[in-house]
């Protein structure tokens, strides 16, 4: 096919509005899309279940301790994941880790019927680890079975599964709660979805290990991983150290930004006459806010992400969110109205949920198999949670010692975003150098 446009079948032509999908790639991409879709529907059902369980145990203040507890547990989980990945092949790794989380759900279900104390807090902590670990594993797998060129074209299509599945999962859970289905029964819904997600891994892995390299996903090695653990791999690699630094800075900005919007909403609500009016305003605001964030994220993922990667490369995808964040917090720091704060945060979150999440996965394409699985687990779980903890410290210092208002926290985020951009530029340069090094090695 040298010198001619790649041929496309019916499925590839149907996916054409979303990205450039070559002949033989459509089925594998659609299967991975479906697998991520099932995972995110299941997660958002559990995320909805989480709220009544934690609130029944004493209120929102308990959640402030969750990040620290998760970080401590992840220091054990990440090495354990690395050990397990060194004992089994790729398919057994996917199946084994998924089964572990399904068994945990069944134990929570049994614990609920037994009336065990503090189960809501334990579930809250567990779900935070699940939310970071399972998507990280999915993208480790996707990075393993696609080449860099394929990933840059197909990851935007695959990630659309998360953009569609997330709001659907929340909607399904809300409707079932409304029909009187209890939280522990809803855990069984997610357990079934996770089992289907696990079965799809087996189907996909059989397909990609048979596929020719130039057609669907390449037949990457499936054997157990060797080498050191995730933390060691990150410390040894200048590229991964930059990637982790970017994730920490991103997490600080994102979590502090959520505090800014909550504080802004509360300030408006406090000016209303009654508790009923305040609750009505807050509920109405967040319902509308989340709706537009999710709708905007789906549109960006479907029609912007792949085109941005194609025309601006990895640099365009990686720098999109910090530039949007810089504009958003610059407006807030300058004293923007509440309506402007709301739409600035909508733009930031929508870009985060679509383009930035795609970029985060693309950055792992030129890494080794060991780094894709072991180091990615450490980066996407422990180090992201470290960023959340730093943000909590920033909020504590700003409110307790410095007396910062919303504008003050916005200026703090502007400073962190500036550092984020510097790190992102250095990371992009290292990414290009690593990609060129790999191309040279293949050519030799």
Word description of this protein:
This protein has 444 residues and is an all-alpha fold. It is built from 14 helices and no strands. Helix 8 crosses helix 13 (369-400). The two termini are 23 Å apart. The model is unreliable at 212-219 (pLDDT under 50).
Biggest sheet details: none
User: What share of the residues lie within helices?
Assistant: over 70%
Taken in chain order, the helices and strands follow as HHHHHHHHHHHHHH
* Number of separate helices: 14
**Regions with little confidence, pLDDT below 50 for 5+ residues:** 212-219
Give the assembly state of these chains. single chain
The rough form would be described as globular
What layout of secondary structure does this protein have?
Layout: H1 10-15, H2 26-55, H3 66-85, H4 90-114, H5 119-145, H6 148-178, H7 183-210, H8 230-236, H9 238-270, H10 275-303, H11 305-333, H12 338-362, H13 369-400, H14 406-443
Helix pairs in contact: 2-5, 2-6, 2-7, 3-5, 3-13, 4-5, 4-7, 5-13, 6-10, 6-11, 6-12, 8-9, 8-13, 9-10, 9-12, 9-13, 9-14, 10-12, 11-12, 11-14
Outline:
The protein contains 14 helices and no strands. By secondary structure, the chain is mostly helical.
Descriptive terms for the model:
single chain, 444 residues, mainly alpha, 81% helix, globular
């Amino acid at each position: 096919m040298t010198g001619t446009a790649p041929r496309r079948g019916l499925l590839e032509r149907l996916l054409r509005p979303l990205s450039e999908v070559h002949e033989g790639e459509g089925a594998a991409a659609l299967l991975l899309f479906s697998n991520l879709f099932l995972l995110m529907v299941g997660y958002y059902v559990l995320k909805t279940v989480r709220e009544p369980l934690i609130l029944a145990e004493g209120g929102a203040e308990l959640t402030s301790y969750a990040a620290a507890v998760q970080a401590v547990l992840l220091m054990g989980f990440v090495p354990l994941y690395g050990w397990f990945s060194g004992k089994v092949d790729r398919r057994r790794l996917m199946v084994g880790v998924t089964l572990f989380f399904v068994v945990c759900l069944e134990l929570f279900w049994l614990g609920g019927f037994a009336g065990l104390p503090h189960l809501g807090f334990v579930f809250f902590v567990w779900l935070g680890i699940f939310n970071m670990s399972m998507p990280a594993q999915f993208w480790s797998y996707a990075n393993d079975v696609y080449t860099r060129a394929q990933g840059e074209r197909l990851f935007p299509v695959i990630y659309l599964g998360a953009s569609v599945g997330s709001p659907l999962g929340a909607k399904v859970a809300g409707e079932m709660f409304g029909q009187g289905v209890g939280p522990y029964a809803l855990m069984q819904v997610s357990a079934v979805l996770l089992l289907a997600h696990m079965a799809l891994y087996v189907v996909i892995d059989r397909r990609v290990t048979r596929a020719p390299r130039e057609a669907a996903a390449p037949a990457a090695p499936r054997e157990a991983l060797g080498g050191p653990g995730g933390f060691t791999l990150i410390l040894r690699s200048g590229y991964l150290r930059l990637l982790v630094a970017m994730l920490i800075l991103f997490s600080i900005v994102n979590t502090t930004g959520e505090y800014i919007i909550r504080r802004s909403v509360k300030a408006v609500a406090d000016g209303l006459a009654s508790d009923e009016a305040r609750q009505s305003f807050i509920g109405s605001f967040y319902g509308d806010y989340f709706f537009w964030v999710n709708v905007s994220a789906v549109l960006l993922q479907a029609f912007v992400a792949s085109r941005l990667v194609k025309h601006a490369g990895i640099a365009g995808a990686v720098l999109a969110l910090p530039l949007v964040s810089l504009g958003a917090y610059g407006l807030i720091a300058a004293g923007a109205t509440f309506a402007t704060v709301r739409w600035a945060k909508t733009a930031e979150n929508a870009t985060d949920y679509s383009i930035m999440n795609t970029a985060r996965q693309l950055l792992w394409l030129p890494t080794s198999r060991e780094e894709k699985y072991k180091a990615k687990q450490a980066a996407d779980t422990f180090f992201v949670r470290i960023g959340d903890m730093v943000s909590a410290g920033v909020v504590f210092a700003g409110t307790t010692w410095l007396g910062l208002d919303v504008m003050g926290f916005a200026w703090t985020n502007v400073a962190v975003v500036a550092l984020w951009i510097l790190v992102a530029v250095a990371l992009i340069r290292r990414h290009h150098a690593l990609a060129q090094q790999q191309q040279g090695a293949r050519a030799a």
